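Reopening this ticket.

The earlier resolution said the output was attached, but the attachment link was broken on my side. Pasting everything inline this time so it's all in one place.
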Amino acid sequence: MRLSDVLSKEPSMKFEQVEGFLRKGLPHGGQQKLDVGVVCRNFYCKNCESELTFSTGEKTKISCVGVTNRSVSIDCVLKCPRCTVTVPIWYLVESKDDISNAIVEVRILKRTEKLPKEVLLSYGKYGSYTELLDKADRAFRDGLGAGAVVYLREIMEGITYQVAQSKGISIVGKNGKKIPFKAALDKVDRECHIIPQEFSSMGYTLFGELSDVVHGKSDEETSLKNMMRLEDLSLEY
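Inline output:
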């Protein structure tokens, strides 16, 4: 296996064995161009209206910067196979032992992509919510729990109001304005059961905690824990 195979996968805490890719150890800040194969990732290209495999190209070398004797920073640019759209990606790669060994076990500690407006992480099958889901996923992977919750809360509100409108459920108060979202969610759920039992049985406690995040009443660590709880309950459901 070559390093490009690992870089093309989703980040994992599991170490994988690859061919050595450094000619010699890199000092802190030292740079080297790597010939490690083609790095590929699937993205949805709006220009091409299709989910395609973006890649670095057959003869392209990627940039590597030394961090420690067990870690390096890697930059590369992936291009759409049909148009000129590109996606720059940065990786922080860690090895079990000295990263300059002839055979080395590595894992991706961090991966960050800068998506242009023409590119989505996934196929746009979720309609108007696709971009918000992509942004929530990227924020969560970058450790920005509060940011991820803001996007998810926006999705939750949008779906709730959409269901209310389609089912003719009034969510307008006596003053002619929308009732508080908690009340709207409760009302819509009573009639349409849009919330899984795991959530509603908790008296919407988790949703209240997520609202605290949106309104700046929660720190990043608490936000990330709530995101993990939300993800776990969703998987169980």
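Reporter confirms the inline version is readable. The longest helix spans residues 145-167. Residues 139 and 148 are 5 Å apart (CA to CA).
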